[in-house]
């Protein structure tokens, strides 16, 4: 990466032009950036920069366009050389891609983050209480706060978990909650991800790349660190074990999984074994790992396998990536699983619509971070509204992810509108709808200038001896102009997220 020489004796800046070694180059500038009436994370108006961005803006505008573009290209090359990739499965083919990064960060001021942190802690505590209740006493169902048939019809509800108490009473150990904000600048929860939330490795690597790209700006701005996430993750996993000095492993479906890089990365960063189902066996009432010295008892498994594939004896008998008998060992309290089997019911997008009521029921509090207004198609009045106004709404299937099973009404064709109307009529339980939110934007480097692109934010929350919200998260960005879909599998990328002290 080309180092910048800021000495005036070697580089002189005059009227936005940098003269060096007989060549004249234009400095990079945000002066022609347009917010286009969207809420912008960097600018309050076309000319006014938010306070948290001032050090970054000042440093960037000292660079030539060529140098700034060069730093972006260097970051992209580093991603590929480090093997930071994911697999996309479409049209019958698997394609390996880098997770694109844009080097203009997303900055969140301290006071705003403190409120988000409090809201996420509140939400995760309530969801954990909900999961424990649903699989045990079922008070919330008996009281009619959440309809019983809604739970029992959820694809992710596991009857086999009824009566189960996970170690330390914790169900959702690792959560990635997706946040957005619209035109008014207020954060809202878009969805919860409690089964196997991914993307944290990109958060960590994006920070390392930006440290190399703008080291002095990070120091000057006062950005909270995220690099201790693997240490915090390991401490949490060790906490849920039932004995000291536990053996912890990461269970992956294998190299063909889209997030395999993350599985191997986290195992390496924590200093624990990365295992597949063939490396584990149930013997003598315990889960054991094959090693060169024989079998070793495993105490904690950070599993990156969906619930129903975890144990072919308990769930899907056709699963080839699970460990036969592991669920019975878990129920006996002889192995801890993170996240606990059964948490997926809280990922159901219809259950999401009830989370404000869940918070009120268990905590007696109003949600600090609101949900997006949600229409529940299983409710007759809501369903009719969705059918009548589908052109203006975003419709989502209850158990799909990564931007699949979704209709963005304003951008869809009339044929797609009608197709989704028929799907909703055939199975209203399986759909929700929300207003089309004009997501906030952050400047991105497009060619040789900055343009606004829509973003969301996925903070990561660890639940061990306390609830720990990592200060930042993965800012996902819709790199296609005008797109609202930020998922990497749908053409999105990432940005480093700076939470200020």
Measured as a percent range, the helix fraction is 25-40%
Tally of alpha and pi helices: 14
What are the low-pLDDT stretches, counting only 5+ consecutive residues below 50? 1-22
Mean pLDDT equals 90
Shape label: globular
Structural class by secondary-structure content: alpha+beta
* Spatial ordering of strands, largest sheet: 8-7-22-23
The major β-sheet equals: 4 strands, antiparallel
Number of β-strand runs: 26
Beta-strand proportion: 15-25%
Distance between the termini: 29 Å
Layout of helices and strands, plus pairs?
Blueprint: E1 12-14, E2 17-20, E3 23-26, H1 54-60, H2 65-81, E4 85-90, E5 93-98, E6 106-108, H3 110-134, H4 139-142, H5 148-152, E7 174-181, E8 187-193, H6 200-213, H7 215-221, H8 229-239, E9 248-251, H9 260-270, E10 273-275, E11 280-283, E12 286-291, E13 294-297, E14 300-303, H10 326-331, E15 336-338, H11 349-352, H12 355-363, E16 375-376, H13 380-388, E17 393-397, E18 406-408, H14 414-426, E19 431-435, E20 441-446, E21 449-458, E22 460-463, E23 467-469, E24 474-478, E25 492-495, E26 497-499
Parallel strand pairs: 6-26, 9-10, 9-14, 14-15
Antiparallel strand pairs: 1-2, 2-3, 4-5, 7-8, 7-22, 11-12, 12-13, 16-19, 17-18, 17-19, 20-21, 21-24, 22-23, 24-25
Helix pairs in contact: 2-6, 3-12
Structural description of this entry:
By secondary structure, the protein is α+β, with helices and mostly antiparallel strands. It is 28% helix and 24% strand. The chain is built from 14 helices and 26 strands. The chain is globular.
Care to give the gist of this entry?
The chain is of the alpha+beta class. It is built from 14 helices and 26 strands.
């Amino acid at each position: 990466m080309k180092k910048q020489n800021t000495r005036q004796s070697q580089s002189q800046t005059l009227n936005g032009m940098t003269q060096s070694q007989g060549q004249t180059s234009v400095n990079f500038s945000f002066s022609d950036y347009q917010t286009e009436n969207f809420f912008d994370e960097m600018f309050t108006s076309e000319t006014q920069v938010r306070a948290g961005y001032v050090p970054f803006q000042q440093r960037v505008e000292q660079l030539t366009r060529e140098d700034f573009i060069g730093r972006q290209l260097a970051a992209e090359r580093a991603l590929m050389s480090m093997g930071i990739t994911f697999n996309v499965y479409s049209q019958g083919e698997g394609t390996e891609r880098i997770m694109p990064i844009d080097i203009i960060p997303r900055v969140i001021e301290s006071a705003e983050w403190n409120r988000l942190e409090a809201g996420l802690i509140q939400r995760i505590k309530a969801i954990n209480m909900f999961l424990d209740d649903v699989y045990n006493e079922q008070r919330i169902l008996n009281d009619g706060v959440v309809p019983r048939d809604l739970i029992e019809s959820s694809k992710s509800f596991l009857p086999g978990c009824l009566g189960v108490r996970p170690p330390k009473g914790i169900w959702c150990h690792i959560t990635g909650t997706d946040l957005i904000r619209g035109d008014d600048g207020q954060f809202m929860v878009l969805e919860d991800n409690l089964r196997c939330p991914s993307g944290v490795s990109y958060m960590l690597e994006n920070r390392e790349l930006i440290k190399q790209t703008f080291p002095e700006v990070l120091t000057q701005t006062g950005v909270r660190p995220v690099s201790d996430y693997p240490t915090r993750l390991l401490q949490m996993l060790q906490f849920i074990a039932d004995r000291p000095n536990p053996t912890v492993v990461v269970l992956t479906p294998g190299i063909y999984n889209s997030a395999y890089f993350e599985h191997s990365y986290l195992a390496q960063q924590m200093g624990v074994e990365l295992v597949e189902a063939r490396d584990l066996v149930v013997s003598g009432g315990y889960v054991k790992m094959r090693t060169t010295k024989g079998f070793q008892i495993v105490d904690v498994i950070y599993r990156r396998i969906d619930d129903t594939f975890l144990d072919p004896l308990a769930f899907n008998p056709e699963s080839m990536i699970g460990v036969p008998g592991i669920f019975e060992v878990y129920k006996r309290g002889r192995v801890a699983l993170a996240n606990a089997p059964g948490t997926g019911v809280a990922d159901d997008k219809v259950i999401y619509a009830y989370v404000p009521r869940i918070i009120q029921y268990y905590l007696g509090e109003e949600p600090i971070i609101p949900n997006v207004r949600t229409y529940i198609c299983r409710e007759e009045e809501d369903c009719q509204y969705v059918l009548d106004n589908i052109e203006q709404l975003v419709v989502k299937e209850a158990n799909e992810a990564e931007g699949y099973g979704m209709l963005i009404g304003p951008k869809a064709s009339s044929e797609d509108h009608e197709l989704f109307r028929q799907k909703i009529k055939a199975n209203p339980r399986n759909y929700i709808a929300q207003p089309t939110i004009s997501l906030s934007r952050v400047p991105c480097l497009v060619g040789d200038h900055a343009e606004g692109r829509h973003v969301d934010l996925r903070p990561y929350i660890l639940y061990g001896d306390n609830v720990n919200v990592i200060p930042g998260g993965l800012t996902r960005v819709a790199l296609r102009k005008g797109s609202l879909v930020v998922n990497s599998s749908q053409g999105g990328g990432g940005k480093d997220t700076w939470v200020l002290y």
